[in-house]
């Protein structure tokens, strides 16, 4: 996947441009130094929550690391267009991948929202790691059933259901049961 190496390289470029050491960025983003070095140098894809923390610590939009091109006007994605996916992990940040993201606005410059179609693969071992980050999320279930751990509450959503949540509350989104699910997710993070 071409996105894997590109994200780490972009993080490193922005970090070095701002003359921030790996240790200082890890501290600002509240991440392990080894994890950050793996992301920058070995092409490991961070979880979406970690990528948001890195973008916040560097003072850039989340889309800065996901953009392919800069387009000022509207961006249209046709259903027939081949979509490039990016996988993020919410379990073992170094190798477990179970969320496949298809960006719906990768070419839009200056955006403040990140809309995705997200395919959620069922996990064999339910070990849900909760994450927190600034911003808000809107989720609409397109297919299947998802479960959301949100703080101390659990929400079960079926096809056609939606939820709007504050991302600062510890949360995890996963497929309910043993079946895959598909959602429309829109993430907003302030810069």
Please tell me about this protein's structure:
The chain is α+β, with helices and mostly antiparallel strands. The protein folds into two domains: 2-65, lambda repressor-like DNA-binding domains (434 Repressor (Amino-terminal Domain), Orthogonal Bundle), CATH 1.10.260.40; 85-188, Jelly Rolls (Sandwich). 24% of the residues lie in helices and 29% in strands. It is built from four helices and nine strands, in the order ααααβββββββββ. The strands form two sheets. The chain has a six-stranded antiparallel sheet with strand order 1-2-3-9-4-7, with no helix packed on it. A three-stranded antiparallel sheet has the order 6-5-8, with no helix packed on it. Strand 5 and strand 6 form a beta hairpin. The chain is globular, with a radius of gyration of 16 Å. The relative contact order is 0.16.
Compile the SSE list and pairings.
Blueprint: H1 2-17, H2 22-29, H3 33-42, H4 48-58, E1 85-88, E2 99-103, E3 113-120, E4 136-143, E5 145-150, E6 153-158, E7 162-166, E8 171-175, E9 181-188
Helix pairs in contact: 1-3, 2-4
Name its key features.
191 residues; alpha+beta; Jelly Rolls; 2 domains; six-stranded antiparallel beta sheet; three-stranded antiparallel beta sheet; 4 helices
């Amino acid at each position: 996947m071409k996105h894997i190496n590109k994200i780490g390289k972009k993080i490193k470029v922005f970090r070095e441009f701002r003359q921030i050491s790996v240790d200082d960025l890890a501290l600002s983003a509240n991440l392990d130094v080894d994890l950050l070095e793996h992301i920058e140098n070995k092409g490991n894809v961070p979880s979406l929550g970690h990528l948001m923390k890195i973008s916040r610590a560097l003072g850039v939009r989340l889309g800065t690391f996901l953009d392919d091109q800069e387009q000022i006007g509207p961006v249209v994605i046709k259903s027939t267009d081949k979509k490039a996916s990016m996988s993020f992990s919410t379990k073992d940040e170094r190798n477990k991948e179970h969320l496949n993201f298809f960006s719906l606005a990768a070419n839009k410059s200056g955006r403040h929202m990140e809309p995705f179609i997200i395919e959620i693969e069922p996990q064999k071992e339910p070990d849900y790691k909760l994450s927190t980050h600034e911003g808000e999320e809107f989720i609409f279930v397109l297919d299947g059933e998802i479960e959301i751990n949100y703080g101390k509450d659990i929400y079960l959503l079926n096809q056609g259901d939606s939820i709007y949540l504050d991302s600062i509350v510890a949360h995890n989104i996963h497929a309910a049961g043993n079946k895959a699910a598909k959602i429309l997710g829109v993430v907003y993070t302030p810069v």
